[in-house]
Amino acid sequence: MAGNKSKNASSVGSKDQRLLRREQEEKEIAKLEQRAATYQLVSGSDRQAVLFETLPLSKRTREGLQKAKYLECTEIQRKAIPLGLRRRDILGAAITGSGKTLAFLIPLLEILYRERWTTEDGLGALIISPTRELAVQIFEVLHTIGKRHTFSAGLIIGGKSLKDEQERICRMNILISTPGRLLQHMNQTPGFDCNNLQVLVLDEADRILDMGFKRTINAVIENLNRERTTWLFSATQTKSVKDLARLSLRNPEYVAVHDQAEASTPAKLVQNYMVCELERKLDILFSFMKAHPQTKALVFASSCKQIRYIHEAFTRIEPGLPLLALHGRQKQSKRVEIFDQFLRNKFSYLLATDVAARGLDFPSVDWVIQLDCPEDPATYIHRVGRTARNNAEGRALLLLLPSEEAGMVAALKEKKVPVEPIKVKDSRTTSIRQKLQYLCFQDPEMKYLGQKAFITYLRSVFLQKNKKVFDVHALPAEEYAASLGLPGAPRIKFNKKSNDKNQDRALKRLLADLSDSEDEPEAKRTKASEKPVSKVDKMFARKNQDVLADHYTKLIDHSVTTADGTLPSGTTDFGATLPVVDDDDDDLVVLKRADHGLSDDENTQTGELTRRQKARLRKKALKADLSSKVIFDDEGNTIHAYDLKTEEDFRREGDISQQIAKRLQRDRAAVAERDEIDREKDRLRRQAQKLKRKLHEKGEESEGDGSDDEEPVVMLGGASDDDNNDSSDDYSRASGSERTTNHDDSGAESGEEVVVRKRKRSRSRKSAREPSSSVDEPPRSLQTEEELALQLLADI
Fold first, then answer.
1. Helicase ATP-binding domain location, by residue (predicted)?
2. 578-608 exposure pattern, b = at least 16 Cβ within 10 A, e = fewer
3. What is the DSSP-derived secondary structure letter of residue 563?
C-alpha cells in the first residue's frame, strides 16, 4: 500500500510539474509576442543593440546561441530578425559573410516555438538551398543553435536514398532541401503535406534562379499554402529575384546592409586582377602554389573536366602539393568528405567549380584565385566572398585574358568592386608544359582528360551571354592545347542556334549522314543499297577496341566537311568536329540516333508509321474524346475498348429508377447463383476428404502382420511420426539391430524414452497414389462425382 501511495504521489507530482512548466511557457510566449510587436530598432552605435540578449528571443534560443558562442548580431541580423519575429515578408540583400544564415534561422525557430509546434502538426518551416553543400552547412548551424528546442529537422538532398527519406520526411517540422529533390518528394512521396507551412526561406535566391531552377521553384510554390511567411536572402538582387519576390511575397520589407555608394564586397578584402595569355594560366597557377605552400586557398575554374585534369596533373607533377578537388560530377559522399577535409585542413588548395561559390563558410581562407573569368559581376562577388568573412582579412586574384580585360573590369567598376591590376614576374614563373606533354604521351587517360578539359573550356566560353567579354574566336586554341600537353587542338564545331525547328532537324540529319558515310569504307558506301552492313561486320571493322580509344576516336577521327573540302558555315577550325549540345552534361561527345528511315510522306505511302506519327495519333485520339477508353493496335489505329451511352440514350430505354431496380435485381440473382455454386463445390470437397479418410482407415485394418512388410523404426525423444520418420529409418538400417531402451553406465534407463514402432507399407496407399490401369478414364462431370461419393458412403 505504501508503494502504491508513493507511485500515486509521484505521478501527481509529475503532472503538477508539467502543468507548471506549461504555464511558464505560455507566460513566456505572451511576453515574447508583446516584446516583438513593440520592439524598436536602435542605432548601431549603441553596443546593447548588437547583442542577442537584447532581442525578444526565448530562453531556449538564447542558450543555444551562447553555447555556440554567438554573442553579437551583425548588421543584417539586427535588421532582419525583428522583422522576422513579426512575421513580415523579407527581401534581404547582404554581402557574403555577413551572417544571413542566422538572420533567418533564429526567427524561424522563434515562430515555431510560439506556435507550440509538435511532430503531429507536420511541416512548419521549409528552407530551399541551391547546392547540397550549402544545405548541409545550414543544417549544421540549425543543429548547433536549436539543440534546446524539441523540433525535428531533416536534410533532403540528392545523392541519398529516396526510400529512406520518404520514411522520415513526413515526421519533420523543419526541412532543408534542394529544389529538385523537394519537388520529387512532392510528386512521389505519399503523405508529404505542406498545407500547414508557416515559413518559407529561399537562401541564395539569385543562384537558385541562375542554375535553372526557376520552373522548379514555381512548381514548389504552387504546392504551398498562401498563408505563410516568405523570406528571400541573397548577396545580389537581380531582376529575376525581384520577379520572384513579386510572385511569392506580400508587401515585403527590403533589408540591405550596404547603400548604393558602398562597395558590395568586404572592406578588408584586397582584390587584384592579372592579364595573361591563355596558354600561361597553368604555369602561373602552379608557380603560385609552389611559392605559397602554407596557404589555404580556393581556386575556381569553369568546368568539372578542367578541375579533374588540373588536379590529376598537378598531383603527378608535384606529389607534395595539398590539393583537393570539388565539383558537381562527384558522388554526394565524396563531396561531403572533401568539404569536411578542407574545413579541417590548416593549409590546402581546393580546386572547385561554382558549386562552392555560394554561401559556404570556410574558416580562414587566405586566397581566392579565379583561374577563369566569371560569367558576371555577381558570380565574382560570390566567389571572392569565401574569404574575408566576419571582418577578417583576405585576398582575391582574378586571371583575365587580353580580350576579357576591358569588358569585365568595366562591369566590376560599375558594381563598385575595387579591383586593381598587378603583373607577374616572368623570372618567378615555372613552365610545366613539357611535363604535361610527357604525362599525356605516357598515359592515354591523361591525354583524354586534357582533350575533355580543352573542349569544355571552349564550350563554356561559347555559351556565355556577354559576347563583349567572351569571344571564343579570339582564343588561341593551338597554343592552349599545347599548354595542356596535347599534340594538337581538337576541332570543334559550334552550331548556330536556329528558331526554325525544321532547319535544325535537317542540319542534324545531314551531319549524321555525313558522319556515317565517312565512317564506312568507300566500297561499302557504294554498295550500301545492295547489301547492308551488319552489326557484327561493324564490330570487327572497328579499330582500337578499348574504352579510352573509343572516346579518343570520337575526338580526333570524325571530321565534317562539305563537298568542296571546306567546313560548313558556323564552324571554327580547331581540329575534330563535335556538336555543341546545350544540356546539363559537361560532355560534348554524345551519340545521336541517326534517322535512317524514310520520310514521313514515304512512310505513309508504304503503310508504315513512325513513332512520331503514332504519338500524334494517340494525342489526337485522346483530345477527341477524353471520356472513352482507347487502345491502339500495332499500326497505331485507335480501338474503343467500350462504348458509353449518353444520358439521352439512357432515358429513352425507360424510367431511370426502374432501370436501376432491374439492374440491381439482375446483379443480385447473379451473385446468388454464384454463391450456390461455391457452396456446392465446398460440400463436395468435404465429402471427398471424408471418403479419403475412411478409405485410409479401412486399408490399415485390412493390412496383414507379415514380417516381410515390416521394418523397425526408432523414434527418439517422443517426436512425431511425420517429423522423424525418414531419419529414424536410416538410423535403424545403419545399426542393423532393433533398439528398445537406452541405458547409461549404471544400468538405469536414461531420461530419453525410446519408442519402437513399426512402419507399415500400405498397398492401399500405393494403389491410391498410382492408377490401377494404364487406360485413361474419361473425365466425369460434377454430378457424376457427387453420385459416386454418395454410393461409396452408403456401402461403408
1. 81-255
2. bbbeeeeebbbbeeeeeeeeeeeeeeeeeee
3. T
* Residue 388 near residue 268, CB atoms below 8 Å: yes
Distance CA 362, CA 340 (A): 10
- φ, ψ at 596 (rounded to 5°): -90, 0
Nearest CA among 422, 465, 491, 385 for reference residue 100: 385
d(CA 576, CA 559): 5
Matching CATH number, 273-435, of 3.10.180.10, 3.40.50.1100, 3.30.40.10, 3.40.50.300: 3.40.50.300
- pLDDT tens string 574-622: 443 333 333 444 443 333 444 444 444 444 444 456 667 777 776 666 5
C-alpha cell at 500: 526554325
- Identify the weakest region by mean pLDDT among 132-136, 682-686, 719-723: 719-723
Q: Are 361 and 394 in contact (CB under 8 A)?
A: no
What distance in Å separates the CA atoms of residue 230 and residue 235, rounded to the nearest whole number? 17
Residue from 227, 208, 228, 203 nearest 218 by CA: 208
Q: Pull the grid cell for residue 520.
A: 564506312
Strands (E), 590-698: 630-632, 638-640
Q: One-letter amino acid identity for 250? A: R
Strand 253-256 relative to strand 90-93: parallel, antiparallel, unpaired?
Answer: parallel
Q: What kind and span of H or E run contains 352?
A: strand 348-352
The answer to pTM > 0.85 is: no
pLDDT of residue 508: 52
Short-list 674, 681, 673, CA closest to 786: 681
Question: How many CA atoms does the CB half-sphere of 727 hold within 13 Å?
Answer: 8
CA distance 465 to 472: 12
Residue 176, φ and ψ in degrees, nearest 5: -115, 125
Domain boundaries, the chain: 39-256, 273-435, 491-520+533-595, 597-653
A 10 A CB-CB count for 450 gives: 26
Fold that domain 39-256 belongs to in CATH: Rossmann fold (3.40.50)
